[in-house]
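Ticket reopened. Same input as before:
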Amino acid sequence: MIVENSKTILSVQGLRASIDGIDILKGIDLTVKSGEIHAIMGLNGSGKSTFAKVLAGHADYAITGGSVQFEGKNLLELPPEERARAGLFLAFQYPIEIPGVANTQFLRLAYNTVQAQRGKEELDPLEFDDFVREKMKLLEMKSDFLDRSVNEGFSGGEKKRNEILQMALLEPKLSILDEMDSGLDIDALRIVANGVNRIANKDNAIILVTHYQRLLDYIVPDYVHVMQAGCIVMTGGKELALELETRGYDWLHENRRSLSGASA
Amino acid sequence: MSAVLQSLVNQPYKHGFVTDIESDVAPKGLNEDIIRLISAKKDEPEWLLSFRLKAYRHWLTMTEPQWQNVHYPKIDFQDISYYSAPKPKKKLASMDEVDPELLRTFEKLGVPMHERAALAGVAVDVIFDSVSVTTTYKQKLAEVGIIFCSISEAVHNHPELIQKYLGSVVPVGDNYFAALNSAVFTDGSFCFIPKGVKCPMDLSTYFRINTEGSGQFERTLIIAEEGASVSYLEGCTAPRFDTNQLHAAVVELIALDDADIKYSTVQNWYAGDENGVGGIFNFVTKRGLAKGKNSRISWTQVETGSAITWKYPSCILRGDNSVGEFYSVAVTNNYQQADTGTKMIHLGKNTRSTIVSKGISAGHSNSSYRGLVRIAPTAEGARNYSQCDSMLIGDQCGAHTFPYIQVNNNSATVEHEASTSKIGEDQLFYFAQRGIGSEEAVSMIINGFCKDVFQQLPMEFAVEATKLLSFKLEGSVG
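Engineering reply: fixed in the latest deploy. New output:
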């Protein structure tokens, strides 16, 4: 939701990044305020997933220009774990498997780390168990899921639910959901989107990185940005996504000037 | 990221200090006179001197093994002092009379002895260098007929048991290092659980090498009679030295009908510095004989120390339906080398064995699993399950697996599984994205990897092992 006079959570200016000397992001500007949901759309290779990983601090990418302010801090000088503790969350497109580490242990450590950072109470295993089960209902998850190793042998849908469960636990200021709908059937998509909608509130913000419009039927964005060759080339409201769906990305080339950026 | 991985493993050894206690040290060198000196110092009976001399003469005919996957400078056996005993200032009647310097050493190791003994209900037979300083809980154990004392005491007080069992599982000429140990062993633990007795507490020994340049040749003998059971804990740590120290221990276990022996080790001898200078050479022969029907021998080891580890705790499953188990975690870092594993020799009918080995290599280290599963023609219906997993941290280390399987009975079932994994940067990034730093992430991954083995350890040991592993691998991930 767009809220009058709300605080800026993320401010990206002229961000450039490369991997192995190849420029991927070529000057991105984006402002995200609390309460807002932004969708970043674009074809494969347009740089949208890279943008998500760069914000999270992935070591493979070199920042070659620009700045990023997150809640008033210089995000780019923080190591990835401190970005996470400061409230930046990335739901991975391909969540990583960690054999041998029980999901419940992992979730509790992540939760307590963030709680400690916020000066809030940490939970012991029993308290945490009650707490996490409550959150799992939100995503219609089975209880055996806590005892399994982190993401190991999880189906695509289970992995995505696990990501959103972590989002629910960690209560981030800004969540970046990278291709959240990939690998999900329609029922799973509905459940996961429902979860996200219940987490979204006026104090946090969400960036949806997606290829398809489909997800946006379930999570309605306030802004839609279109990315091409490492730049945001167009910004509009939710209707822009529908426009893209019917006309395809090629249509953009002719109409880049007809729609002007609303928030970028 | 690689720099972080690098910096995580490189923490100095925190047990590196030398305790200044007057030692009674034999001159360097090995010959029959030295063996006679050791035997005389310990006031041993003639049969034990013959045992030693027989071993020594056999040792002279043997050559140092070359087949293991470790490399080290040639050991000069004449440059080692084979006997060193702290000079007792007076006879010790209780813990209060133990040399305060010695007690401080234990404090530094984080093993406040009386506390440990009292709180954990553990009887600690403390070996300081080569002579037992004190034995706790002995009387309580004596009430149920358990003998738990140093080998030297047992030689004097229970000669019939020593004569019957010493060398019965590991013969004097078994291998080069076992022969050396048989010739020169100075002390160690003896434990005898009589028929039908379940040992009411875990028995524990803390080993420690102290005098620079003195070899350590412990000898441990544990016997569980019919229906008896015991859980024995061995923990090791050693102070920091630049000259390599040789450690060649022999452990023999004997389980009669329906008896059960569980032997757990946490080994943290000094491993050398980050450039591979110094560290203990640990050449150990451990073997259990599941002699009676339905008996069980279970080895659990967490090997984190030593510059070189050469160790294959084995089970000879002679009794029908007997069970052998080997659970191992071996961690190597910097320039450490470990060649460790087990032998499961199935002789009796329906004998079963389980091998779970977890190797973790970091830095420039090398870790090898070497195991033998042999099913004899007599071992009708024998079964073995082996699982060998390796984990690599960084790209300078190595992990190797040498499984030998010999099956001579076609009713046997033998399974072997192996895997190799790496702590990936993607995994660390995933942890980081959830606010978890790389040290904690590595510790969590490692503990997850070792879970199957840690579950086998007694509670307080499991906690210690978990901490030790995190400590050993600090700075190895990046």
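The two ends of chain B are 4 Å apart (CA to CA). Chain B has twelve helices and 23 strands. Please confirm and we'll close it.
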